[in-house]
Amino acid sequence: MSTLKQFFKDTIIYGIAAVLPRAINIILVKLHTNTLTSDKYAENTIYFVYAAYFNAILTYGMETAFFRFFTKEKEKGKVVSTSFISLLITTLLFLSVMLTYSNHIAIYFGFANPIYFQILILVTTFDTLVVIPYAYLRVTNKPIKFAFYKILNILIYAFLNLYFLLYIPYAIKNGTYAPKFITANFEQNPLVLYIFIANLIASLITFLFLSPLIFKFKLVFDKKLLYKMLTYGLPIMIGSLAFVTNENLDKLLISKYLGKEQMGIYAACYKLGVFMTLYIMAFRLGAEPFFFNHAKEKNAKETYAKILTWFTIVGAIFMLIIVAFIDSFANILLGKEEYFEALAIVPIILLANLFLGIYNNLSIWYKLTDKTKYGMYFSIIGAIITIAFNLVFIPKIGFMASAWATLLAYLLMTIISYFYGKKHYTVPYDIKNILLYLFISIGFSYISFILFRGNLFVSILLVFVFISYTLWNEKNEIKQILKK
């Protein structure tokens, strides 16, 4: 099987691992918006914003460092055990300090109830401890096992959401059976608490399933190896924090300037952009270990170039489809019309996320040349743009400022990374073809959303024309991939 064909095959499996959990999560959005008021939905959003920050801090770039050194070092077991022990020690320290002072920290972070913050700390702990087991499955080309555990996690979470938000209220109302320890104080607690509890149980069970992978190896702690991994990974951590800022600060600032209700509406519509996020995640799960494992091959750079072209093509098609049928997606996924107010942000967020995916592809140059400090610089630039743009323009134009800030940040990061990459690790990207697909997708999306919104005939026609052009323009490349 050809290198590209194997890559696409593995990426499809990783895609299932990424798409199915998020697809279920998207379905849960409607459950949450139907059962929670917009201010309580904002409470749910704030919880996951802080979870993202804690995950970036606690992993401190160790996942990417693991990929790099697993492919470089001869003693693979030493890389596995050293990285896991390092994360275990720092995570347990984090857990003990945070739980000790949880009441004070919860108030400082603005949680309505300290127990929300305590659950967040426990969830973050379990999620951090499965980072290396998940990374090991990816780097050793075991996408099916990886997908199994990811899907198991979301199925548990989804089942418990349905159980707590639908069945328990139904059981209390109709007198059917439900455990007394759950129903005793159920009506006195906000429903959002049970979403957090479902998350905790799912993370705990996933950790119990994955932890035995680590104990297949002799637990060895190599200080010199850890130093090299930290040197490589810490700039990635700073970049990750900047990335989390790009993704989440807008929600915190909207809550501050416009109120929790507006933030809840914005956050719900923002999740329609998750379709592009799913695609990016699926691609990254397959691409990151692939790029490291094939870096020494003669035609590696040509392969990377083709991968970026195909990533852009498929992403551009996704963007057009979502924008063309945006009202249908909104009706299916959001439910309440009060959330439709922010639908105008969706095309902008989709394009921003597409540029983020292109940036992730381009970032291979600084990861393979051990120049991760550049990734840190680019992400900080993006974060500065996000912060400044939001602070200045949210009070003036509302939540649209946050969408434009996200697009501007990722676009600039992509451009800067491309030109720096040409100096340090030249890859023959087909820029003309990539830009052509981007411009067509943006143009068709504009026509559909601004000029013919809700016109089903025009939407179908635009999608059909774009896909037909792609198949015609790439017919030779498609034949080559399928033949091998």
Descriptive notes:
The protein is mostly helical and 484 residues long. It has one domain (3-483). It is 83% helix and 0% strand. It is built from 22 helices and no strands. α3 (62-72) runs antiparallel to α4, α4 crosses α11 and α11 (223-258) crosses α12. The N and C termini lie close together (6 Å).
What descriptors fit this protein?
484 residues, mainly alpha, 22 helices
What is the compact description of this entry?
By secondary structure, the protein is an all-alpha fold.
Please describe the topology of this protein.
Elements (H helix, E strand, L loop, with lengths): L2 H33 L2 H22 L2 H11 L3 H25 L1 H8 L4 H16 L1 H9 L3 H32 L5 H4 L7 H20 L12 H36 L1 H11 L3 H20 L6 H25 L1 H8 L11 H18 L1 H5 L3 H26 L2 H25 L6 H21 L4 H18 L1 H9 L1
Helix pairs in contact: 1-8, 1-13, 2-6, 2-11, 2-12, 3-4, 3-7, 3-11, 3-13, 4-6, 4-11, 5-6, 6-10, 8-10, 11-12, 11-18, 11-19, 13-14, 13-16, 14-16, 14-20, 14-21, 16-19, 18-19, 20-21
**Regions with pLDDT < 50 over 5+ consecutive residues?**
none
Proportion of residues in extended strands: under 5%
Rg from Cα: 23 Å
Count the E strands.
0
Q: Could you tell me how far the N terminus lies from the C terminus, measured between alpha carbons in angstroms? A: 6 Å
Order of helices and strands: HHHHHHHHHHHHHHHHHHHHHH
| Number of DSSP helical runs | 22
Summarize model confidence as the mean pLDDT: 84
Oligomer: single chain
Q: What structural category do the secondary elements indicate?
A: mainly alpha
Outline type: globular
Helix content: over 70%
